[in-house]
Design goal:
Oligomer: single chain
Order of helices and strands: HHHHHHH
Strand content: under 5%
Length: about 140
């Protein structure tokens, strides 16, 4: 890898990490909790409630070496920010121990994300681009 390509890759990786860091509360905290915190902060001209939720969101991630939480967050950001799919369930909010994963809710909208991405791709099967029923 050339030095300029390596530098560019490092810059993109750093920007992705910053993007994910800044969106941690959006992913890990339920929208209703964020709305209440924003309302409280507006009422008292403060940032205390939202700041507390951001810290809670950061602490909710596991510190295990092998985890899929980062990938799940990337999928969430892709689905919500770019495909405009709403978050239906905030599973991080359901965790009772930050050292454990919340099992059982993965991939519920993954097929929808896949279909929407494929519809935008020239390489997608014609049935997906046309929006006709398909079999998995």
């Amino acid at each position: 890898m050339t030095a300029s390509l390596s530098t560019a890759t490092d810059a993109y990786s750093r920007r992705l990490a910053e993007f994910m860091r800044d969106a941690v509360a959006d992913y890990a905290i339920a929208r209703s909790q964020l709305a209440k915190a924003k309302a409280r902060d507006t009422k008292f001209n403060s940032t205390e409630a939202v700041t507390a939720l951001v810290e809670q969101a950061r602490r909710s991630f596991t510190d295990l070496a092998k985890t899929g939480e980062g990938g799940e967050m990337l999928l969430f950001l892709l689905a919500e920010r770019f495909l405009k799919l709403p978050q239906v369930l905030c599973k991080m909010d359901l965790k009772i121990d930050s050292r454990m994963h919340y099992h059982g809710a993965d991939g519920h909208f993954g097929a929808e994300v896949f279909v929407r991405l494929c519809r935008r791709s020239q390489y997608a099967p014609s049935c997906i681009r046309a929006g006709r029923p398909h079999r998995w």
